[in-house]
Amino acid sequence: MSSPAAFSVGEAVARAFEDQPIVDIHTHLYPTQMGPLCLMGPDELLTYHYLKVETCRQLSSGTSVAQFNALSKPRQADVVWRTLFAGTGSPLSEAQLGVVTVMSALGLNPRSDSLAEFRALFSETKPEDYVDLVFRKSGVSRVYMTNDPLDDLEGPAWIAGFERDPRFEAALRLDSALAGWPAAAAKLRALGYEVEDDLSPRTIEELRRYLADWIERMDARYLAISLPPDFAYPSESAVSKLLDVAVFPTARERGIPAAMMVGVRRGVNPQLLDGGDGMGKWDVSFLENIAREWPDVNFLVTLLSRENQHELCVAARKFPNVTPFGCWWFLNNPSIIREITAERLELLGSGFVPQHSDARVLDQLLYKWTHSIRAIAPEFVRKYEALRNTGWPLTEQDIRNDIARMFGGGLLFEQEPEGESD
Ligand code: FIX
Ligand code: ZN
After folding, report:
1. pLDDT tens sequence across 304-360
2. For ligand 1, is residue 358 a contact (CB within 6 Å)?
3. Does the CB atom of residue 360 touch ligand 1 within 6 A?
4. Which among 407, 385, 406 is positioned nearest to 394, based on CA atoms?
5. Is 329 in the pocket of ligand 1 (CB under 6 A)?
6. Closest-approaching ligand to the CA atom of 53
């Protein structure tokens, strides 16, 4: 066997990424068995909210955002195509590059005048074959969905029951149940949970029953909530109290992580509908309060503001029950991914989950992971070269082990909750 110093780190990292099946820990993807929730194909891809927002910045004069919103999905996709891909400027934004990568991966001409060729390919392929094709070509082996029983489409699908494609794992999302309490009380009551409008002992008991039932029904692997930048903990807000009395105790009892996604300001420009959300910086001392108060809950944390990333690393150094994950949403751009990955490697070693895709349309797996790995791999190479230069007899297997741990989903469940072992 050649001496450990003989191999090329760059090539070893590239091989490790090529061979590692990716586990994508946060997406908005669903299996075909969940009917209309499963989004794929050109019309869905082109009407991704990132692209609609970019289109709305440059609608031709005479077309308003309201008129664009009123169009059918295929007509919106045509407008997006004409504006962002067959228009005057080159498709340089990350979301635009994404579409080009997807089309190239599918063997399509991205410089076409229309979506006709893409639509023909999609309509000629059976949905289950399309799913297989995307999983195979993207190198993704499993994805975590974002599951909300209170969603009008999703709840009935779970209640009716379906045979789950095992590549799709569940994550119970709590935004609609907890945000703006008692906004969700009527929906919870309709599902059979006797919550009251105030946070009475009965309400808390019933909310905990809701969590327990739905974790069970979905086999949810973690709980998740997104929160605004002004979220404070502890505080008198209903959401802070509900996390304390219902969500965190449930995560602890069940031994599953709680994912906190903080920094989103919903509906900053309501006219843009699903693309209208903005962001803001959080006070990370609230995360410290949570982590200190709940040492036996594993918190998966992603923060939306670039300004919060260094503080998040420092908080994770202080609290082993905090695992940073992903470069979320407005951070999911190569320049920022590079910066965040380097910072996390330097402060946390291999103890974080570098990326999730946040894909909403299955086809996006074909670009989000290639683009992310292209940004992340050089940072790993730099670190492994630095490690070898310090005199560490690095082996290719070391690299493979780290990449498997960080991209193979294992870190999610690495921390056994206290008191669970015996
Ligand atoms: O809250 C979330 O999970 C966000 O990722 C989404 O709501 C957002 O719309 C999105 O798709 C970001 O990439
Ligand atoms: Zn998301």
Report:
1. 999 999 999 999 999 999 999 999 999 999 999 999 999 999 999 999 999 999 999
2. yes
3. yes
4. 385
5. yes
6. 1
The model's pLDDT over 159-206, given as tens digits with 9 standing for 90+, comes to 999 999 999 999 999 999 999 999 999 999 999 999 999 999 999 999
Q: How many residues does the chain have?
A: 422
- CA 149 remoteness from chain centre: 18
Going by alpha carbons, the residue nearest to atom 8 of ligand 1 is 329
Distance CA 269, CA 49 (A): 13
Cβ-contact 148, 37 below 8 angstroms: no
In terms of C-beta density within 10 A (0-12 exposed, 13-18 middle, 19 or more buried), how is residue 136 classed?
exposed
Q: How many CB atoms lie within 10 A of CB 336?
A: 16
Q: How far apart are CA 340 and CA 342, in angstroms?
A: 5
**Pocket mutation for ligand 1, best pick of 24, 25, 28, 227 (most atoms within 8 Å of C-beta):** 28
Q: How far is the CA of 143 from the centre of ligand 1 (A)?
A: 15
Helix axes 396-407, 9-19, angle to 10 degrees: 40
Retrieve residue 67's tokens.
């008129």
pTM of the model: 0.97
Beta partners for 299?
A: 258, 322
Please name the amino acid found at residue 19: D
Side chain identity at 362, as an amino acid letter?
Answer: L
Question: What sign for the dihedral angle of Cα 370, 371, 375, 376?
Answer: negative
Helix boundaries (H) for 139-268: 154-160, 175-178, 185-190, 201-218, 238-242, 248-254
Ligand nearest the Cα atom of residue 261: 1
